[in-house]
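Provenance and format

Records in this collection were gathered into a single text stream. Each protein contributes a sequence line and a token line. The two records reproduced below are adjacent in the stream.
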Amino acid sequence: MNSNISQGSAIKLNKASLSRLGNNVRVPNYDRHQITNGIVHIGVGGFHRAHQALYLDNYFHQNPGSKWGICGVGLLEFDKRMRDALNSQDRLYTLVEKSPAGDRARVIGAITEYLFAPDNRQAVIDTLADPKCRIVTLTITEGGYYYIEGSGEFDANHPTIQYDLQHPDEPIGVYGFLTAALDRRRQQGIAPFTVLSCDNLQGNGNIARKMLTAFAQMQNPELGRWVAEQVAFPNCMVDRITPATTPADIKMVAEQFNINDAFPVVAEPFLQWVVEDNFCAGRPDWESVGVQMTSDVHPYEMMKIRLLNASHLLIGYLGSLAGYTYVHEVMADSLIRQAVDNLMAEVTPTLQPVPGIDLDNYKKTLIERFANPKIRDQLPRLCLNSSAKMPKFVLGSVRDALHQGGAIDYMSLTVAAWFRYLNGLDDQGNAIAIDDPIGGTLTQLARTSGSDPKPLLNLTEIFGDLSQSAPFVDTVTNHLRRLYEFGAKETLTRF
């Protein structure tokens, strides 16, 4: 990650060097050797390190000798970079919170072990099966759940799923590892762990429950019943804008804080975590570090997904078409900023009342967060894996608005802007890289059908039966025709 960047005289981050870091860097003041790993986290990326691991780091400062340390797990070849960076730094890393008021750095020590599954699959199963493991948290992206959007069913035919069913002792996918460990615990009379999804899915715990139980049932009906009866799957809502780490971030950490960190993470100051209090094997006292525990997460996650995440998609597509690179640049464009405001206003009637939240203030805060120039959040991150995001972030609002007889203009504009984006060229004719599991299919359909959205709307695995809604199809058609004819900015002017 940082092979081409000179770190100069910056101090290489590891356990031995913590005492040499400057006073402008907060470091762990608890004994990491006194912590046992009660949590296994699958999918250690920027977001986990800026969010859940930070909450635990705060917890350890209050509760030294805790049993809630984190063992990180990477399942994908892509995770080699994280393995190499963390293991070379005693699992320490730098978190920098950036705002117009200034940058604050701290070293996080909550991850005390990291396992790269392709190196040793059995070690991962052993760790998950160990009675010390009480919670398994997940950030495996929206597409990592093998959930068929159109039907809501488990994608049992996916090659990863089929492989893991046929190779239960050498799994490659998340459900294969979880069921291998749970089956061992069941056979040895060890209570199961809680599975806590921290991904941007409405009802993420419910989805994790349905998908994992379906997989376990296919592998062993008795195991499937045990999982359904014994394992807890809390829903939760997570929120913190965390851009992908860039070489510039590595250089900034070296120059500003004198730390040579192979994989730091940068985030905004805002932080929120709302968790359903439903655990089968205990949990940390998260309330003591600002986590909101509740009996019903649904209104909070609906608010966040339908306002923040849907707005991110509209910003990503319109901004990319208009030739922008960063989110804050897009938000400085009054036309697109107004479109984001209007999208939020349109979505709001589909939301449930959210206890303790002033929605007008929440939306105002979102606009301020998007406009933060220090974050330098890049548009491709927002548009990544859109085929998994669109149904979860936008289409539920469309269905509810249609049912209520409400407006769908800006939700439909978001869909139309995605279709125009999928053509792979911005309004100036520059290439746009489409990063999506089914990107080839989507781009081919977008290019052959042009301003006619019907071939894309007929992808039932994404849109379900929405292609049968004349108001929705007509509104998307009108927007898409304008986007092709006039471009993003002129379309918004005419809108």
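Adjacent record:
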Amino acid sequence: MKNRLQLLKVIAKLLLLVVLLASAFVYAMFQGGFVSWFLFYSFIPFALYSIMLFIYPLSDFEVERSFHSHDYKAGDELEVTIIIKRNLPFPLFYLIVDDIVTPSLFHLSTHQKAKAMVTPGFRREIRLSYMVNELPRGEHEFTDVRLKTGDFFNLFEKESTLVCKDTVLVYPSFVDMVYRPLESRYDQGMTTSNVKIQKDTTMATGIRDYQPGDRFSWIHWKSFARTNELMTKEFEERQSHDILLVLDRQASSAFEQMAMFSASLIRAVIKKGAQIGMLSIGEDHIFHGIRGGEEQQSQLFYHLAKVRPDSRFHLAKVLEGEGINYQQSAAVMFVTSSLTKPLILSVNNYAKRNSSVIIFLIKEKGDSYTSEEKALKAMAVARGIWVKVCFEGEFEEAFAEVKKA
């Protein structure tokens, strides 16, 4: 039905054009004189152009889109160049070019659309560029380019949508953060320790007499067979800076700052030579194992580029229901924008495992640090949990108080 209506509209416009042309000719025949014939002959080129434009196929156009890079950081500028090519140099009076992209791309930009009008004339190739002056974090998809043109009388408007898919991945921005290893928790309270010591069971350096509490797997069976006395392997002690980052993906106005802080922390830890993993808790729970190196940083940054605040439950409820599986030698760092009593009580379970535990409370610039949050911080410290309030613009000092604790 819709196609029939479109066909009827086109036929009606063609008939209208013929009627106008015939009217001009009849007027010139009966009126005579220079003016009437001038009007008729002047109208003929416009009418012929309209008919030719009706026949001209917009499928003749080809579109390409180019970027300087496909990976950007939040806050960077993006220059997009659209290249339009065609084979037939038909003179076009105007051409409206509309780049179809996800609205999230212009969330922070002064421009809200990628749309422009050009006068192609006889040109076979047209280049258009536009800027997005402040990129938001995320994955932004460019899907199509819509072209639209028409004649002088606006009787015939032609539109074509050309598929041209591209993706731009915008990583979270980061700051140069100085990472310092966290303090360890002991029965006597909190104390500062540059490293956490654990035994490397892959490398035995000697044997000693068996002591109560030694693991069964540490027994040196060859010496027991030879001397009939229980001996235990001695292992090389190594330093562990392993960290597990837990990201709270509950909806929050400070979520972009949380992503920025997480990226800065990951970069600082790996730059220090330590290992880090991440548990991202939202609608789905995504776990990245504890590793180090540039590849690990790239994987974590890729996740932070695409992650969304889509958690339907508070972090405390998730921790109570499922918990976190991690190696006990790793320090656990929670990144959230909401500090509550249930969260502290849930996190307290991990502080009891002889692991360093810290909650980073992320706030936007200008936010207040309430008296309720101060009381909750004191409650957390009493349970051996360090709480650090980090305001946007002050992330560099996130670990400044570690040595003072």
